[in-house]
Design brief:
The structure is a homodimer. Chain A is globular, with a radius of gyration of 25 Å. The first copy, chain A, is built from 15 helices and 23 strands. In chain A, the strands form 5 sheets. In chain A, strands 3-7-8-14-11-10-9-22-23-21-20 form an 11-stranded mixed sheet, with helices on both faces. In chain A, strands 16-15-17-18-19 form a 5-stranded mixed sheet, sandwiched between helices. In chain A, strand 15, helix 10 and strand 16 form a beta-alpha-beta unit. By secondary structure, the first copy, chain A, is α+β, with helices and mostly antiparallel strands. At the A-B interface, strand 2, helix 3, strand 3, strand 4 and strand 5 of A face strand 2, helix 3, strand 3, strand 4 and strand 5 of B. Strand 5 of chain A pairs antiparallel with strand 5 of chain B, so a sheet runs across the interface.
């Protein structure tokens, strides 16, 4: 069988070639298929089901903070994109342009949205008049296009799926508060649901979003020690409001500019999920995000009663609130095991004639491969406990990995040596001058990931230039 | 206040100018805002919340039949679009073309998907090898673009949201079965959830989808007697499979072409929801689809205890499983009433000092304006009953309207007179010749809506040409 052949070929080992391992996993776990459209991916059912769970969980969290969903056009007229100077400079080089509609050439080019600040600003300028209209807390789930030259599934593709929240507020304080609030929503979601620990902080001016006053980020560390920017939250101040004339009359009937934010998280996070937790057998999904949490696999399934019992077990697990499935296909148990492992399903439940005699089943954890013999009388309950344990163990392991791979440097020599030899984050003080930031990038290819929310200090001076240090920065090589 | 002024201007009466009434409602119920992008609409929170409920309900029904969600690229290379002859002829004149990516001119134009048959076919040709890989039952929720000249919110816009299901099967029988199954999913959804009765049937060859073997449709009748095609399901036979070489090896190891279907329902259905149920006070939403089912409105809200009580009532309704909200703003009760009516919220719950004395509240039905005095001891329970009654009454009224406006014609003269004088469906026999279909359209502007699933016969001959009749057809003027 073509399919069987595909899976038994072992995937590349992570330590041998991490990039190839990643590509093998996204293909063999059937998350993604390449398409005929350059740089665009097809998200297959197992990949899309992960995205649906991410959407469900994040959407609920957004709505709890008062956010409402809307849908904006996918096209932006060129003149609209150009209204905010920094913004257009940041995005114009990487957008796709529609120049023909039907059989006619358009009078004005339309870009396919790379992000929708300009559309939301135009919308807000129409619907905001009074302080009673504020705040506006809108979000949309959509796809965006950025014309990238080198692409990788989930991590960087010409088109990707995301949500983009856009809010308008009466005061600067409120906007700043919302920016941080949404960063915390992302951070909590990543840690609680995806079991991915993150470093929260502010981007340097060089790394901030085109047109933003300030950008906050959550940074995660992949298994190979590279950083992945996993979600960002921007405070625009009143910059866009001035460019788009978004004004409201306050309680004293004075015209004021609104203060805005935007924040986004994309299918890129699925890349993080793979690269933080996966191993040489494939994907490893934290139970809370896994579309299938338990796979029931019958042993000697042709023996009388085995399939019926397996199906009964599947129902017991479902009744306990577990997303369970039964693999009743005619493949061998060994084959089914490696398929369940490749797909990262958190537990498998094995049941055969001998187990039946003893009124038990064997639960095997995907994360540790530990086998647990469980009485059928308490199957659902025990499986739930094991899933919770897996969830917290996976987070603990990822957290330990992050901590073990976060280094400090007090001199620039030490910094360069650490970056060269030890994959991970390197903390170092910084004077705040872009010249030092650029020098570090040139010397080491490491970029500033963020200025973390911490009082930690590693010294008084910037090790690069010797001038007084302003802040601590996390540096790292990044995806 | 700008906002108050906007709503008190009464909307155009339906009988005076139905098209203007529709435009007023979508704007004043804040479902849609026009955008800077020609022909594209902004779907506002109250509009999008309806779409989210439609998605939730349909998605659940799809998944119950085994369908899985995926995501395909939004671009189609021109050469891929051209692979199936009829398909490209049908769509090429109305697509938007991307010709530039970043700063470069593309070697091959990409069209923004108007529908994704070609992408799914290309995908299926890669992943289907064996009979074990079948069936494939995939769906995607996305936006599509069709370059329309004249546009109207929800009904016809350059970009709209929809779902498109695409399936591949081993046999022609299975494909036909799936086509009808999904048509029935649409019909049941419309009738049970949207309270919109539909006529199910097959499209004539002239009206079928570009590239389809046969197209099935559900047709709804709007308040003004015009028809709206509300969902379609297509059987492609093996036409696309031959063009895209989608073959599988059967159990005897022989190569066979797959048989395919596709089916879609779009934000257009929100237009139907408005035009089937609405009245001169605005929107009227069936309870099962309404984002807010009950609005609690305090009377004399500054009197002691009223706001607290209103909030308590809101909690009681929520505890009963009702999507309830409290309007605690400082607007007048009369203003709040008309706002609740404009937004189509199925019931409002009024509570004031006198009601409190008597331990009661007044429930007002949006559909009939009937007032019901309800004891607070059974508020949740009674509200639930009333919502169920509204749901079934709304369906019954729409059904009666459909039946009252469905006419029969036995001669062509009678047909022409009915079409001219009586808005609605007109049933008439047909020979099956496109010439007669074209003549009817030219003479009356009515088009064939569908050949219904019925044995009904109105005679032996086609009243247009006098030749033997093959089938009964529903004719009507359509959106």
């Amino acid at each position: 069988m073509a399919k069987e052949k595909k899976l038994v070929e072992s995937i590349t080992s992570m330590n041998e070639d991490f990039a190839q391992w990643y590509t093998d996993v996204v293909k063999k776990a059937e998350l993604v298929e390449y398409s005929n459209v350059k740089g665009c991916m097809i998200i297959r059912p197992d990949g899309y089901a992960i995205w649906e769970n991410i959407q469900k969980e994040l959407d609920r969290r957004f709505k709890e903070t008062g956010v409402e969903n809307v849908y904006m056009p996918m096209f932006i007229p060129e003149s609209l994109l150009q209204k905010e100077k920094d913004h257009v400079e940041g995005f114009a080089p990487e957008v796709a342009w529609v120049t023909q509609g039907g059989l006619e050439t358009l009078q004005e080019r339309l870009c396919v949205r790379p992000t929708s600040e300009t559309l939301f600003c135009d919308f807000y300028s129409r619907i905001i008049q009074s302080h009673r209209d504020l705040p506006k807390l809108y979000n949309q789930w959509c796809s965006v296009v950025r014309w990238e030259k080198t692409t990788r599934p989930f991590l960087r593709s010409a088109e990707f799926l995301w949500q983009e929240g856009h809010t308008a507020h009466a005061t600067a304080e409120e906007a700043e508060e919302r920016t941080i609030q949404m960063l915390n929503v992302y951070a909590d979601f990543c840690e609680e649901i995806l079991a991915i620990p993150v470093v929260k902080g502010k981007k340097t001016d060089k790394e901030k979003f085109a047109g933003a006053h300030s950008t906050y980020t959550i940074e995660a560390l992949m298994h190979d020690g590279k950083a992945l920017q996993s979600g960002t939250s921007h405070n625009f101040g009143d910059g866009f409001a001035r460019a788009f004339e978004i004004q409201y009359s306050d309680k004293e009937n004075q015209l004021q500019y609104v203060h805005q934010t935007s924040w986004g998280l994309s299918t890129r996070i699925i890349g993080a999920l793979i690269m933080v937790h996966g191993d040489d057998s494939g994907l490893k999904l934290p139970p809370r995000i896994a579309p299938v949490q338990a796979m029931v696999i019958p042993i000697s399934q042709r023996k009388e009663g085995v399939m019926e019992k397996a199906s009964e077990l599947c129902d017991m697990l479902k009744a306990a609130g577990i997303r369970a499935k039964l693999d009743g296909s005619d493949k061998s148990p060994g084959w089914k095991f490696s398929e369940q492992e490749m797909r990262g399903i958190p537990i498998r439940v094995e049941i055969g004639p001998k187990d039946m005699e003893q009124n038990q089943a064997v639960i095997v954890r995907r994360d540790t491969r530990e086998k647990l013999v469980v009485s059928l009388d308490e199957l659902g309950e025990r499986a739930l406990q094991i899933l919770e344990t897996i969830q917290s163990d996976m987070f603990a392991r990822a957290k330990e990995h992050l901590e073990m791979h976060t280094y400090s440097a007090e001199t620039y020599e030490e910094f360069k040596q650490t970056v060269a030899e030890k994959p991970g984050f390197v903390k170092m003080m910084w004077c705040g001058d872009e010249a030092c930031e650029l020098k570090i990038k040139e010397d080491t290819t490491a970029t500033s990931r963020c200025m973390p929310f911490t009082d930690e200090s590693l010294g008084e001076v910037c090790p690069v230039c010797g001038r007084p240090a302003k802040t601590l920065v996390y540096w790292g090589k990044a995806y």
